[in-house]
Write a structure and sequence with these properties.
Helix content: 40-55%
Order of helices and strands: EHHHHHEHEHHEHEE
Shape: elongated
Number of strands: 6
């Protein structure tokens, strides 16, 4: 099961190392309080989280732009709850969400342990589809920036995972070869298949125990990477 010859490990950030759902919930709790939005947070998140994922898929496919994603994921969620809110407030919440998201920096429980384990023997990197101004704050504020040699974000490259160009860009930036590199992320489509189709090996962080097929290397816990690396 162990993979030999690996020198460079590329990680996704959100939902892989950085606990996006937990930090996002805390952010909404704060900005709803600041803006006096009277909604049950759990009920809002129940609708918002799948809507957000759908818009991120459209964003990856270049079917919506960043401004549309930020606005519509909120407006659609409020519509689903039949909660009347002005466009001005939606825009204010959208701005506040980005401003405060990086101030909550819970990592998955095993993140620091696995980074400490890998760091002495591999060069570590990040490839993320997140927005530049937010992702760098997340990495810095959660105090994991020193682990990573390079950070590649989709806005810098101009394309998003699973587009092969973002993987090629990251490899060039890292001065790494495909044969000695591996990608680790939670998204089967963006991280795993994107990497495999580009010629990199990949491991799916299948924290939600979804059906990703028996051919795909997968882990349910970050520490299970020790079985491969």
């Amino acid at each position: 099961m162990r993979i030999n010859g690996i020198t460079d490990i590329f990680f996704d950030l959100d939902h892989t190392l950085w606990d996006f759902d937990r930090n996002s919930a805390l952010t909404f709790e704060k900005i709803f309080s600041l803006n006096k939005v009277s909604l049950d947070l759990e009920e809002f998140l129940f609708h918002y989280e799948p809507i957000n994922l759908d818009y991120w898929k459209l964003y990856r496919e270049d079917k919506v732009d960043k401004a549309t994603l930020r606005y519509r994921r909120l407006s659609d969620s409020f519509d689903r709850l039949d909660y009347k809110v002005s466009d001005d407030l939606i825009n204010k919440l959208s701005i506040d969400y980005i401003a405060y998201l990086g101030t909550f920096n819970h990592l998955f429980e095993e993140t620091l342990d696995i980074l400490d384990y890998l760091y002495p023997n591999y060069r570590l990197h990040i490839i993320t589809n997140g927005f530049s101004e937010v992702q760098y704050n997340k990495i810095k504020n959660s105090k994991i920036d020193h682990y990573f040699k390079t950070i590649t974000d989709s806005e810098k490259v101009g394309v998003k995972k699973p587009h092969p160009n973002i993987f090629e860009f990251a490899l060039d930036l890292a001065e790494a070869s495909k044969d000695s590199s591996i990608m680790i992320g939670d998204s089967l489509e963006a991280d795993v298949l994107g990497a495999l189709n580009c010629g990199l090996d990949a491991i799916c962080f299948n924290i939600k125990n979804e059906n990703v097929g028996t051919e795909v290397k997968q882990i349910r816990n970050l520490l299970q990477l020790k079985n491969y690396l």
